[in-house]
Amino acid sequence: MQLVILAGGKGTRLGLTDIPKPMVSMVGKPLLEHQIELARDYGIEEIFILSGHLAHVISDYFGDGSKWGIKIHHVVEPCPLGTAGALKLLEGRLTDRFLVFYGDVVMDFDIKAFQDFDAEGGGIATILVHPNSHPYDSDLVEINKDFTVKSFLSKPHPEDLIYRNLVNAAVYIMSPEVMDYIEPGVSSDFGKHVLPKLLERDQKIYAYQTAEYIKDMGTKDRFSAVCRDLESGKVSRLNKKNARPAIFLDRDGTLNKDMGTNPNVKDFQLLVDVPEAMYKINQSDYLSIIVTNQPMIAKGFVTFEDVENVHRKMETLLGKAHAYIDGIYYCPHHPEKGFEGEVPELKIDCNCRKPKIGMFLQAQNDFNINLSKSWMIGDREVDMIAGRVAGCKTILVNNPLKTDFADHVCLNLLEAINFIMKEAK
């Protein structure tokens, strides 16, 4: 597979004057070199670097790529063409599906897993999406249950927008057919122009969700944080090929006030300690995974859409506090019949309803989770049983009733997270 790196950034916010942004030094080498080495390690043999501002700095440093054991082509845009407009310069030179990186993003992710997902979908493009700590000023993506993209929500967003924290991470796999939707010689952007146009023309775009390390370093604060993560090894540790621990979380009574038998998005409230606790999880190597029973769907009290909207509200509130959830799993089933308006096909004895561990196993498969190093936090005995059966350590919170089924008991989520972080040292 060929790789295109869009390397036209100036780095004005970083105060750069004599080098383009992708050439900023990070832990002893240019950011662009980190990207090239990542691609090479996954078998990429041919790279096109599209540059503009101070392009000679890039071409002088990398040459033809032989020093890195790959073939590098340098293409300089005649004028600023934007991310998509610059790609049009390669029309006819990209012979098959190709990978796209933005040159100002620090990343380490399992490229092969991304390629395998793309091969299964077969759409005109696959984009990589993930939650981040500033969704309110990021380009967001809405997806369907089959992982196709429903819509793009470009920033700035309306103040009252309730959203899933799924951000366009600016990593793509595309078919050469995408070129047909880019106007030559005109500045255009993938997120604002080309990707929405593909949806308008009924082209399928798939979204690949990951919790791996992919962050832009465009501001001084983000640059400093990313450098620290590179130096500590965190960037490489979060690659999906490395099994990670998770903190599994019940929802009602653990993260938010219990809303009873008719949960409504208008009534949703996070518990006071939750945003800080979630932020601390996000700063660690732990994944944050929600596993929640939602039998009200099977009983006919609420719909799937109602539950999804509650989750959007939860992600929106957490996003405003710079926190996020890596994955949400919910069981809509209930085994007992006899409720007026119930949904017959959901009235089953399933494998996902806690205390069974189907949701844990699905998350383990999706994220490559080490269950033996993971924790389950909830407010009910059923949460503790499920966590134990899944092989996790357990903490009971927000419940004065101590139980033999919990390994530990804490007052609330924040106290539980502080305990886990202390144990991990």
Q: What features would you describe in this structure?
A:
With about 425 residues, this protein is of the alpha/beta class. The chain has two domains: about 1-230, Spore Coat Polysaccharide Biosynthesis Protein SpsA, Chain A (Alpha-Beta Complex), CATH 3.90.550.10; about 245-425, 3-Layer(aba) Sandwich (Rossmann fold). The protein has 13 helices and 19 strands. It has helices at about 30-40, 55-60, 80-85, 110-120, 190-200, 220-230, 235, 275-285, 295-300, 305-320, 360-365, 380-390, 415-425, and strands spanning about 1-5, 25, 30, 45-50, 70-75, 100, 105-110, 125-130, 140-145, 150-155, 165-175, 205-210, 215, 245-250, 285-295, 325-330, 375-380, 395, 410. The strands form five sheets. It has a seven-stranded mixed β-sheet. Strands 16-15-14-17-18-19 form a six-stranded parallel β-sheet, sandwiched between helices. Helix 8 (about 275-285) packs parallel to helix 13. It is globular. It starts with a strand and ends with a helix.
